[in-house]
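Weekly modeling sync, notes
Attendees: S.R. (lead), two postdocs, one rotation student

Agenda item 3: backlog of single-chain predictions. S.R. asked that every request posted to the team notebook include the full sequence so nobody has to chase files. The rotation student volunteered to paste the first one in as an example of the format we agreed on. Action items at the bottom.

Example entry:
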Amino acid sequence: MPVTLLNDNQQRRLATHLRLLASDLETLAQSAELKAAGPASARVREALAATREAADRLREALALPADRAPSLKRRIAAVAEVWAVRMEDLRARRLKSYGAVHPELAPRLDPGLDEVRRALKALAHAAQALPGTDQ
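Predicted structure, as returned to the notebook:
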């Protein structure tokens, strides 16, 4: 008897994020710029396909439900969450790996990032009123 490693909520979460990744990869693959001939475009197309295949293998390894589009409610919540994490990575103190950070940047940048994060949280909260499955 196989052991279930994920509960229903965990399965939904992983499946939603992998589906959003697949959607983003498909959008990138359809880019007119990547239709051009040449080795650079070919490498990117191959890397996009390899990424999609890796995500598909992960989905299969975890026996996640069939690849179906998540509800709008779940897509909005997932996008808001992903971008909230990305906003945190843009804080002034975290930009040091990209070069010297001006001492006056944090008071101007970080409050704006906090505002965007609050807006993303409000977006995710507002989406909860939409029909569809939770999480």
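Discussion: group reviewed the output briefly. The chain has a mean pLDDT of 87.
Action items: rotation student to repeat for the remaining queue; S.R. to check formatting next week.
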